[in-house]
Write a structure and sequence with these properties.
The structure holds three protein chains of three kinds. Chain A is an all-alpha fold. Chain A is built from nine helices and no strands. Chain A has helices spanning 2-13, 17-39, 42-58, 66-86, 95-98, 110-120, 125-135, 141-148, 152-170. In chain A, helix 2 (17-39) runs antiparallel to helix 3 (42-58) and helix 6 packs across helix 9 (152-170). Chain A is elongated and about 55 Å long. In chain B, 74% of the residues lie in helices and 0% in strands. Chain B has helices spanning 5-15, 25-32, 44-64, 68-106. The longest helix of chain B has 39 residues, at 68-106. Chain B is flat, with a radius of gyration of 26 Å. Chain C is globular and about 40 Å long. Chain C has helices spanning 2-26, 36-41, 52-61, 67-76, 99-104, 160-168, 177-181, and strands spanning 44-51, 81-88, 111-117, 124-132, 135-145, 148-155. In chain C, helix 3 (52-61) packs antiparallel against helix 4 (67-76) and helix 4 (67-76) packs antiparallel against helix 6. The chains are: A mainly alpha, B mainly alpha, C alpha+beta. Chains in contact: A-B, A-C, B-C. Chains B and C meet through helix 4 of B and strand 1, helix 3, helix 4, strand 2 and strand 3 of C.
Chain lengths: 174, 107, 190
């Protein structure tokens, strides 16, 4: 399995469009979800995700392995999200917009989920990205640090402050 | 209703779960690959040429100074940073005020 | 021509020398809250330094539609500085709580203690306000927890209701008016 992924990467780097399409299909959900969770705007999330894959296509020769590819995609998507937020174009979304993308049915209180989704958009960009990497991608703080180019303690601080803010806003009991 | 940390973490896992990319996403990316700028770099020569062009652009930019657009972008980034720092600072201050407020209220 | 220039230069010097002391008097001096010995030991630090021009810049980027940001925008209007230093340590007792005293000693006679909260096990919070008549023209918050030390200094007119109200909008009750009336008195809460 790992060997075939490696081969797909090599073939894509050699200019094989079909192999590149395979790479896109394999990673598009991850890339789109990072952008979506950050921006909560489908159009702009897709725009960023497309740009990420176009950038990947231009630099495929520098990707060393499937693991490196995943790392690279997370990092470049995060950087583009931060750039986007610095342009000052993102906005606070309404509850209705926040529930634009449906997730699988689950046992969590749907109202709480909606509130959390809304509150996430109020967090500073770095905290939001750190939480996305933690809860979307399931990364450990050290891995988040590597992806976002931050010291471990800064990541821990972002996670802690992000959760604390959500807890405060939701009036939670710990 | 009491909301625990566990509830929040579960809600985060579900709110931030991966979602599917829009239908036809890969096709739209592949269609854009026709753009000559999107061709992969396959040789040292092209990479080197790109580096020379980039160096020339940087040199020109350095000579000509920052354009109004770049200055505006820089200013915007600075403003965004200042905005985030204000919110961080005021939230910290507000949280500490609350600690005092709770103690006063208990009194 | 030279005589005119000389006269103008002299006039400028006189005006400048007269104006700067006035400006210095009007401006509350910034409290020194930088402690390299804490920063080097801390596991995590928060360092926010926003002077007048940065606050004005931030004001232009704060949203007028988002309630929290709108409050922040109103709050920073008229402020000339916000400074925050927060140090978090790996273990309890890793910093000397007497450091708070080094900050207090910098406060002049115009500073009044609003609230002092002391707790043997949790968080000690001291809040001081600089008073000009009945108006608050500066705020200092010193918070000492077993593993965290935080100092906030706000220079300029501070609305305590509004400051606490930043979180009040998320369901947290507003600061009581009693608190304002207690300025100048020392309160101990366990």
């Amino acid at each position: 399995m790992f060997g075939s992924r490696d081969q797909a990467l090599q073939r894509a780097a050699g200019g094989d469009h079909e192999s590149f399409a395979t790479l896109i299909h394999e990673h598009q959900d991850m890339v789109f979800s990072i952008a979506w969770n950050f921006l909560h705007d489908r159009g702009r999330a897709e725009e960023i995700a497309q740009e990420v894959f176009l950038q990947l296509y231009r630099t495929l020769g520098e990707i060393e392995s499937p693991a490196h590819l995943t790392f690279w995609l997370r990092r470049v998507t995060s950087n583009r999200c931060i750039d986007e937020s610095r342009r000052g174009r993102w906005r606070i979304v309404t509850l209705d917009e926040a529930s634009d993308v449906a997730h699988d049915a689950d046992a969590t209180d749907p109202l709480l989920k909606r509130k959390v989704g809304q509150m996430l958009q109020r967090l500073p960009a770095q905290q939001r990205l750190a939480l996305t990497m933690r809860y979307q991608e399931g990364l450990e703080p050290s891995e988040i640090g590597a992806v976002l180019g931050m010291p471990l303690n800064t990541v821990k601080s972002h996670l802690r402050r992000g959760l604390a803010a959500l807890r405060e806003w939701l009036g939670a009991t710990s | 209703m009491n909301i625990t940390d566990k509830n929040i973490e579960e809600a985060l896992q579900q709110t931030l779960a991966r979602t599917s990319a829009p239908e036809g996403f890969a096709d739209r990316v592949l269609a854009r690959i026709g753009d000559p700028q999107s061709q992969p770099q396959r040789s040292w020569l092209s990479a080197s040429a790109l580096r020379r062009i980039a160096a020339a652009i940087l040199f020109t930019a350095a000579l000509g100074g920052l354009t109004a657009h770049q200055i505006a972008e820089h200013r915007r980034a600075e403003g965004e940073l200042a905005r985030r720092e204000v919110m961080t600072a005021l939230h910290i201050a507000s949280a500490k005020m609350r600690v005092a407020q709770r103690a006063v209220a208990r009194d | 021509m030279n005589a005119t220039k000389l006269l103008l230069s002299l006039l400028f010097t006189i005006i400048a020398s007269a104006a700067f002391p006035l400006a210095a008097q009007a401006q509350t001096p910034r409290i020194n809250m930088d402690f390299p010995e804490l920063a080097s030991k801390a596991r995590e630090t928060v360092d926010v330094t926003l002077d007048g021009p940065m606050l004005r810049l931030a004001g232009r980027f704060l949203s007028s539609t988002d309630a929290d940001e709108r409050s922040a925008k109103e709050m920073i209007n008229g402020l000339s500085g916000i400074y925050v230093r927060s140090y978090e340590f790996e273990h309890e007792g890793e910093y000397d709580k007497a450091i708070a005293e080094r900050i207090r000693t910098q406060l002049g006679s115009s500073w009044k203690k609003i609230v002092k909260v002391t707790s043997r096990t949790r968080e000690d919070v001291d809040i001081y306000a600089e008073m000009r008549g009945d108006a608050i023209t500066g705020l200092l918050i010193i918070s000492a927890e077993p593993r965290e030390f935080t100092v906030v200094n706000i220079i300029g007119p501070v609305d305590l209701e509004k400051l606490t109200g930043l979180e009040g909008q998320f369901g947290i009750p507003h600061i009581t008016r009693d608190m304002k009336s207690k300025h100048g008195k020392e309160e101990h809460h366990e």
